[in-house]
Amino acid sequence: MKILRSFWNSPIGPKTTHFWGPVFGWSIPLAAVADTQKPPEMISGTMTGMMCGYSAVFMRFAWMVQPRNLHLLVCHACNETVQLYQLYRFLNAQG
């Protein structure tokens, strides 16, 4: 019980945006993983490139913010990985 209470009251616990931001942020990489099953002709190269940039910027933010938000960092690192894979698929389909 003491562990749960300390997590609840921590600066990165469920009472803060440091917790809920990444929780809802996981919807982006999960949607990108689902999109890997679609044909590469449906991929928007512009949007995928922008998502790569977005995730790179927010990985840096998650590392620099105090308290350091590792949950957000992992979320955006996963998104960056999936988006780079999608960008590869797009460029490969373009020839």
Automatic annotation (TrEMBL):
Q: Does the keyword Transmembrane apply?
A: yes
The species is Acer yangbiense
Main location (coarse class) = mitochondrion
* Its biological purpose: Mediates the uptake of pyruvate into mitochondria.
GO BP term, pick one: pyruvate import into mitochondria
The UniProt entry, under InterPro entries, shows: MPC
Entry membrane topology? Multi-pass membrane protein
Any single Gene Ontology cellular-component annotation: mitochondrial inner membrane
Q: Where in the cell is it found?
A: Mitochondrion inner membrane
Q: What is this protein called?
A: Mitochondrial pyruvate carrier
Pfam families linked? MPC
Family listed:
Belongs to the mitochondrial pyruvate carrier (MPC) (TC 2.A.105) family.
Q: Which UniProt keywords apply?
A: Membrane, Mitochondrion, Mitochondrion inner membrane, Transmembrane, Transmembrane helix, Transport
Q: Please verify whether the record's keywords include Transport.
A: yes
The domain of life is Eukaryota
